[in-house]
Fold:
Amino acid sequence: MKKDFMSGSELRQYLHISTRKMKYLMDHDYIPHENTGHATHKYRVSREEAEKFKYRMETEDGFLAELVGKFSNRTEHHPRRILEPTAENSKAFRLWLEKEWAELPEALPTQTAASLAGFAPQRIHKLIKEKALHGIIVRAVQYISKSEFISYISSPKQIALVQNEAYKSLMGRFIKSDS
Structure:
């Protein structure tokens, strides 16, 4: 039988986040909770609220993007942002990518898509498997929709998670074209 409430520690494990991040989320009211006032087991969260929050973490682009890198002591996780992950920046980046890649076919081989954004081809296959992108196989080559891929890589969530030099370069070219 599932309990109706979780402690902060149980919530942290459920969300797969650090203690520091969980405490920040609670102290800044990202998750509705009850403060028990105790030194240990200070937080109490309804299972329903925890499930809603986890669903938002997994499905909403840009959700908690403002916190990316905030809970790491490693300096490489605190880089200066190339582009703020806002809805308007996301839209402008998407429109720029559509113009930049206008000559490419509407169905991109996964290898081509991966190289355009500096991803490993396995990452594209994983995104297809997770249903974040749709793929189709034609004569042993897997393809994805160019417009769907552009929407994915220009989402606020992906802008916030810039991880490789090719993607940084792409964003840099976008910013230079905007000036």
